[in-house]
Amino acid sequence: MMKVIRRNLTPPTALAVIALVFAMCGGALAAKSSTTAEASKSNRGPKGPRGKQGPPGVAGPQGPKGDTGASGERGPAGEQGLKGNTGDPWTAGGFLPSGASVGGTWVAGVGPEVVPTKGAAAVSISFGLPLKGVPTIVTVKKDQEGTEHAAECPGSVAFPKAAKGYLCLYTASEAVGLTQQSATPSPFGAILTYLGTPGTGSAGVWAVTAP
Predict the structure, then answer these.
(1) Dihedral through CA 130, CA 135, CA 138, CA 140, nearest 10?
(2) CA distances from 104 to 132, 138, 165 (A)
(3) Do the Cβ atoms of 170 and 205 come closer than 8 Å?
(4) pLDDT (tens digit, 0 to 9) for every residue of the chain, 211 residues total?
(5) Strand partners, 126
(6) Distance (Å, rounded) from C-alpha 192 to C-alpha 206?
(7) For the chain: N or C, fewer Cβ within 10 A?
(8) DSSP-assigned beta bridge partners for residue 109
(9) How far are the Cα atoms of 41, 55, 97, 173, 189 from residue 92, in angstroms, in the given order?
(10) Per DSSP, what are the bridge partners of residue 113?
(11) Rounded distance, CA 159 to CA 164, Å?
(12) Collapsing DSSP states into helix, strand and coil, what is residue 191?
């Protein structure tokens, strides 16, 4: 048998035999590998639970500023609002209501001598809100509240009052020899001038009630 094979074994025949042997060996190896993979896959354990989410990463750098968008179209005009209520008269541009009162303090300090032994002093009073008429000025001397001009000026230094249409000056501190020279009222206030001993003066409070 071997002699017959050797006699008929030519180079092409030998190569064909070798190729057949390798082909058969390769198929066997492939079948074994497939069988091993299937076995490994069947022996794999159950899928484990999903792990916890990791911490967030570090924030990246801020991106460049974007371009300014185009201006939008102008919206339609709104409807006209309702007419407002009449304003409070106790505001700028208004008048002190009739019968209402305001008050403050006044000081008349006598300055240097302008005539022999006498100096000049002046008092300027502002009402804050104008009156609709000119008030009458009345001065109540020190300690004469309730006696002097009680009808026009029924108040006191502690609580000055004035009748309707009157400006009352109550004297709290009075200089000896101080004499009134003029008194000029107006809807906005009043100016009074005096002569007295230089370096002295009078002071007090005032109240006015709108006519």
Answers:
(1) -40
(2) 19, 15, 17
(3) yes
(4) 444 445 555 655 655 556 554 555 544 444 444 455 455 555 666 777 887 787 887 888 888 888 888 888 888 988 888 887 765 656 667 899 999 999 999 999 999 999 999 999 999 999 999 999 999 999 999 999 999 899 999 999 999 999 999 999 999 999 888 999 999 999 999 999 999 999 999 999 999 999 9
(5) 189
(6) 13
(7) N
(8) 201
(9) 95, 65, 13, 33, 15
(10) 119
(11) 16
(12) strand
Tally DSSP H helices, then E strands, for the chain. Answer: 2, 8
CA 100 to each of CA 127, 128, 130, 169: distance values in angstroms, whole numbers, following the listed order: 12, 13, 12, 17
CA–chain centroid gap for 68, Å, is 28
Sole residue written with tokens 């005096």 = 194
Residue corresponding to tokens 């002071």: 203
- Fill in the amino acid letter for 140: V
